[in-house]
Amino acid sequence: MSQYVDDLIADVKATNPSEPEFHQAVSEVAQSLSLVLDRHPEYRSAKILERIIEPERIISFRVPWVDEQGEIHINRGYRIEMNSAIGPYKGGLRFHPSVNQGILKFLAFEQVFKNSLTTLPMGGGKGGSDLDPKGKSDLKIMRFCQAFMSELFRHIGPNTDVPAGDIGVGGREIGYLFGQYKKLRNEFTGILTGKGLNWGGSLIRPEATGYGSVYFAAEMLQTRGETLEGKTCLVSGSGNVAQYTTEKLIQLGAKVVTLSDSSGYIYDEAGIDTEKLEFVMNLKNVKRGRIKEYVEKYPDAVYTAIDPTAEFNPLWNHKAECAFPSATQNEINVKDAQNLINGGVYVVSEGANMPTTMDGIDIFLENKILYGPGKAANAGGVAVSGLEMSQNSMRYSWSREEVDTKLHGIMKDIHKTCVDTADRFGTPGNYVNGANIGGFLKVADAMMDQGVV
Ligand code: NDP
Ligand code: 2IT
After folding, report:
1. Number of independent structural domains in the chain
2. Residues with beta carbon inside 6 Å of ligand 1?
3. Is 126 one of the annotated active-site residues of the chain?
């Protein structure tokens, strides 16, 4: 690694204390970019990378709200407007007790490169709150969303910043947020994506991240003349991304044997079929229950509690060919990565954002497996968000087939960009370098064109 990159990372750590996930995301990208910065001194003298790692704007605000018992709650809300060189800020909102400024800065930073890879005109942003939505009534969630939007509305707009869902923010939350925005502004506009189908949402948006991650895995396998048919797959999470990853894998003839939530995971050796997946979707999206209940319905499956402080996660310690981490950041550590390799996994497609630690990534790269990093593999979600924005601007809706075809084409293009870029910079097969450099170049060139702003 060059001295320049070493110094830059040291400076990021010194000036952004207590933000380990942000340091991690920047370090990974900066290491890839050292290849570009050596060849392109003009980016270095224009301080492009130094500018990209500094958010254009951080909004942090109080979210006071009153529950149905009259009790007052105070949460913290954020929106990180990271980079607008190639389009309005775009990225999800996360509601989870672990949310803080550092987590959202890592997510917003990743989003800049991911959105650039989609080929659509979207800058990068991310936001959310430390609210814990677990076990809260619909009324509590509605009151919270209304309070959150009562501040956020003044900072966003269809040509400024367009939020969407992420962990803890799905169709229900987007509905409440949209309703409050419309009331405050007296405007019906494409201000959020992931909207309901009869009020401006796009077909395939709920499916897009999971389907996209599977399309990306299929592209990676095709480079070795293989398909997903008959492959055994480990999927983590049981939310939006995990559910539609599983659906597409079933459609393509693969066998999914695991799903999880933050309490534990299920292992179903026979495979999760369409009927079992329907049960999971109802359990998670309607009943808002726990994955443990799967084994009450399907007693041949095994439930194991996950201890987050344990040395490794047993979910990643089963025999399989493919892994689709689709829960959260750093869910695969170095030991998990080694267990995956030992268990026969040679395809990893990241539905979650930054699910693998830096030393875990090194294991994947050393073993030359097909490793698709999140900013490439999970870009299908934001890509269809971009298509939702286009449809809103045209006041028109494309059919399911049209959107799915566009999504599939975008995932193929992202895969090609990764492969071609990795080749061009002398690291064939390295999708990490391919995604980081491929995403960077378009943003960097736009910033060069637009001057020091
Ligand atoms: P959901 O809220 O729908 O589901 C999240 C799932 O991950 C749940 O099963 C949840 O379990 C589990 N999970 C969350 N936090 C943790 C944790 N700390 N440890 C273990 N498990 C956890 O979110 P999504 O499916 O939308 O998001 C999953 C991942 O995909 C995230 O990394 C997100 O950033 C990423 N992503 C999402 C996109 C989208 O379009 N939604 C697009 C691109 C990436 P529990 O219920 O117990 O909390
Ligand atoms: O991480 C992500 O790409 C998302 N949560 C989706 C963002 C979006 O704007 O659809």
Report:
1. 2
2. 165-168, 170, 209, 237-242, 261-263, 326-328, 351-353, 378, 381
3. yes
Query: What is the model's pLDDT at position 270?
Result: 98
The overall pTM is greater than 0.85:
yes
Q: What is the DSSP string of 277-300?
A: HHHHHIIIIIS---GGGHHHH-TT
Residue 289 has pLDDT above 90, yes or no: yes
CATH code for position 360? 3.40.50.720
Q: Return mean pLDDT, the chain.
A: 98
Place of tokens 């949310």: 99
Distance from the alpha carbon of residue 128 to the mean position of ligand 1, in angstroms: 13
Q: Which domain holds residue 252?
A: 208-377
d(CA 140, CA 147): 11
Answer yes or no: is 242 within a domain: yes
Identify whether 399 is part of a domain.
Answer: no
Mutate to test the pocket of ligand 1, among 215, 238, 262, 349 (most ligand atoms within 8 A of CB): 262
166 CA closest ligand 2 atom index: 5
Which pLDDT belongs to residue 2? 84
Q: Which of 90, 105, 114, 126 is catalytic?
A: 126
| Nearest-10 crossing angle of helices 380-394, 101-117 | 70
pLDDT for 271 equals 98
Q: Is 385 in the pocket of ligand 2 (CB under 6 A)?
A: yes
Q: What is the pLDDT of residues 372-387, one digit of tens each?
A: 999 999 999 999 999 9
Q: Do 363 and 216 reside in the same domain of the chain?
A: yes
Does 1 have pLDDT greater than 60?
Answer: no
